[in-house]
Specification:
alpha+beta; single chain; disordered N terminus; 5 helices; two-stranded antiparallel ribbon; 48% helix
Length: 120
């Protein structure tokens, strides 16, 4: 009985540990500057906690891979997700209109953020 609260607490820590500072400084929809007040939590599933930890070390470096990986596949290991471990990233937007677009197609906008990070 004492295990369930610990598992729940661990899940909350996993979900909240990356969801803090946005992974972007400009809106992935319109390209405008953002101040972080309007953000979309994007849930990313992994095959295990080890992959979550690797992702959390440098989430921005994995964004392109997350965007390209098929649902049901771990973006770190490439293995099928059977028992999901989850992390959240914060995607900042410039307005509520853009928030709805990112909520509808989060992978598309993660790809845009990753692409904008690669530019000099």
């Amino acid at each position: 009985m004492k295990i369930a609260p610990l598992v729940t607490f661990g899940l909350i820590l996993t979900l909240s540990s990356t969801f803090g500072e946005p992974v972007n400084t400009s809106c992935p929809v319109k390209g405008r500057p953002v101040d972080g007040r309007i953000a979309v939590p994007v849930k990313i599933d992994f095959c295990c906690q080890r992959c979550v930890a690797k992702f959390e070390e440098a989430p921005v470096s994995f964004l392109a891979k997350v965007a390209k990986t098929a649902k049901g596949t771990c973006p770190v290991s490439g293995r099928e997700i059977e028992k999901a471990a989850t992390a959240l990233v914060s995607v900042a937007v410039c307005c509520n209109g853009c928030k709805g677009k990112v909520e509808a197609e989060p992978r598309e906008y993660l790809a845009r953020i990753a692409k904008s990070r690669k530019r000099p």
